[in-house]
Amino acid sequence: MSAPSAHRPGRYADLQRIATASMTERGLQPEFSPAVQRQVDAIRQAPAAPDESLPDLRALLWCSIDNDDSRDLDQLTVAEALPDGATHVWVAIADVDSVVPKGSAIDEHACFNTTSVYTSARVFTMLPEALSYDLTSLNPAVDRLAVVTEMVIHADASLHSVRLYRARVHNQAQLAYDAVAAWLEGQGPLPEAAARVSGMEQQLRLQDQVAQTLRRARHAQGSLALETFQPRAVFDAGQLVGIEQQVQNRARQLIEELMIATNTCTAHFLARHSGRSLRRVVRSPERWMRIMEVAAQYGETLPGSPDSRALEAFLARRHTADPLRFPDLSLVIVKLMGSGEYVVEQAGQRPLGHFGLALRDYTHSTAPNRRFPDLITQRMVKAALAHQPMPYSDAELQALAQHCTRQEDASRKVERKLRKCEAALYLERFVGQSFDALVTGAEASATWVRLLSPPVEGRLIGRLPPLRVGQLLRVELKHTDVERGFIDFALLETEHPATATSRSDTRSHNRPHTPPHPRH
Q1: Cβ-proximal residues to 4 (8 Å cutoff; 6+ apart), any chain
Q2: Cα maximum dimension of the chain
Q3: Contacts 24+ apart (CB under 8 A), 1-8
Q4: What CA–CA distance (Å, rounded) separates 117 from 23?
Q5: Cα angle vertex 358, ends 352, 359, to 5°?
Q6: DSSP string of 141-169?
Q7: Contact of 153 with 262, CB cutoff 8 Å
């Protein structure tokens, strides 16, 4: 067992300290400067409408749906059924730019980090909490300014009559993913915040219906349904009491689909009105031949050139055939596709597109409270709406695209490091106990396994027989190192393929499906 920490194990303080140090190690700023605090102190309230001519949409049945503990609410949604079977949808995005002027001290900090960094013990918000949790958050029962995307979605999932404009909005109900999903799936009651608002029940049903229409159409076009390994630490009174897998559900899909549609509409808008935009792209995989080899290991044949529809069909078959091992196959495919990045695209150029979403035109615009590229895009949209010059030059945009890509990668590494530290901290109490595990990586240098429960990963140590990826094992926890996030296991036994198949069948329920892109 690892040496006792100078801090009492199981408390927030351990992980807070590690998270802060990891931010600095990765070139991110964990704290706000005095200049930022002075600017925050000077901001007394959220801005009012610049003039009364802005559309007043406060009476619509807006709601927010986010994580249980989310306090930085970026978006609201509302929908209306049309007589021809289409659906009128509005998505409101917090007008962060109205509070955070370009070039201000707050803006410079946001530009440096480029994103909020989420760890279990501490959230490093991109904007000061007084803004991200209040003055720029679409909180319930307060009036806010927003940039609204209005669209009509037909039964075939096509988008029509798209408009972008500024407006005044009012969140009628703050809702959480898990509670809404439980109700949609018949596993729980309508959330109290929704039940208090007349018409909100029908509103949520309609939004779910249109989201599922969009989702089916995306996957038919080749959008990849990948399943990511997303463990989440569970605390109770400051004690780490568990590690759970975050499950994808209908409510998450609802917001996901409406945000993807909004991001697509925003990309089209900027292409028409500004001539350039900051796009979020996942390039066509250069290592497609390697992806073909992976498919061949399962007796499948993929086309000779990148084809997202064929890849999605292969993935769907593998998920059905072996849901237990599907997260590990997903990870292999994600690594071979390569990371997403930000690029500047000019009107008239062939878009690089987002291979994972099977979209040609895609930007990030729906989370300006917590992602700087979205704030950049919002400023460009507002300038186009006001017929003003673009707020960023081509050279600025090019530099920002590269910087945002680098900093996003750094933030992911901080979050990944902390997930490992959380797992090591939780497992300290179980040293010497045995677990069922799957081999996730078998190389000459190291062999890696994933426990079936709790959902954590670690390394196999000691002399090992030949092992293959996907093989079921029984392992013993030998050692944890919270500071470095290391977890070591020893092999106890391997299992017969027939046993592995039966275990796969019994553990396949409630496996989450998540697409290969970040939050909205």
Answers
A1: none
A2: 74
A3: 1/428, 1/431, 1/479, 1/480, 2/424, 2/428, 2/479, 2/480, 2/481, 2/482, 5/482, 5/483
A4: 9
A5: 55
A6: TSEEEEEEEEEEE-TTS-EEEEEEEEEEE
A7: no
- DSSP-based three-state secondary structure for 246: coil
What stretches of 285-325 show up as alpha helix (H) in DSSP?
288-296, 308-321
Per-residue pLDDT of the chain (520 residues; tens, 9 = 90+): 333 333 344 467 889 999 999 999 999 999 999 999 999 999 987 777 776 789 999 999 999 999 988 999 999 999 999 999 999 999 999 999 999 999 999 999 999 999 999 998 899 999 999 999 999 999 999 999 999 999 999 999 999 999 999 999 999 999 999 999 999 999 999 999 999 999 999 999 999 999 999 999 999 999 998 887 788 888 887 788 899 988 889 999 999 999 999 999 999 999 999 889 999 999 999 899 999 999 999 999 999 999 999 999 999 999 999 998 998 899 889 989 988 999 999 887 888 999 999 999 999 999 999 999 999 999 999 999 999 999 999 999 999 999 999 999 999 999 999 999 999 999 999 999 999 999 998 887 899 999 999 999 999 999 999 998 889 999 999 999 999 999 999 999 876 443 444 344 333 333 333 333 334 4
CA distance 419 to 243: 9
Of 193, 182, 377, the C-alpha closest to 278 is: 377
Q: Which two tokens stand for residue 284?
A: 């066509």
**CA 398, CA 273: separation in Å to the nearest integer?**
19
**End-to-end Cα, the chain, rounded Å:** 40
β-bridge partners, 280: 342
Residue pointed to by tokens 């509670």: 179
**Residue tagged 């219906």 (tokens):** 209
Contacts 24+ apart (CB under 8 A), 181-186: 181/249, 181/250, 181/251, 181/252, 184/208, 184/250, 184/251, 185/249, 185/250
The two three-digit tokens of residue 392, written as one number: 């960023």
DSSP state of 221: T
Query: H or E segment at 123?
Result: strand 123-124
Which helix or strand (DSSP H or E) is residue 75 part of? Answer: strand 75-81
The β-bridge relationship of strands 117-118 and 434-442 is unpaired
User: Left, alpha or beta for 338 (phi > 0: left; psi -120 to 50: alpha)?
Assistant: left
Q: CA-CA distances (angstroms) from residue 220 to 102, 156, 157, 217, 499?
A: 41, 11, 11, 5, 35
> Which amino acid type is present at position 74?
D
Q: Residue 316 corresponds to which tokens in the numbers above?
A: 């769907």
- Which amino acid, one-letter code, is at 142? V
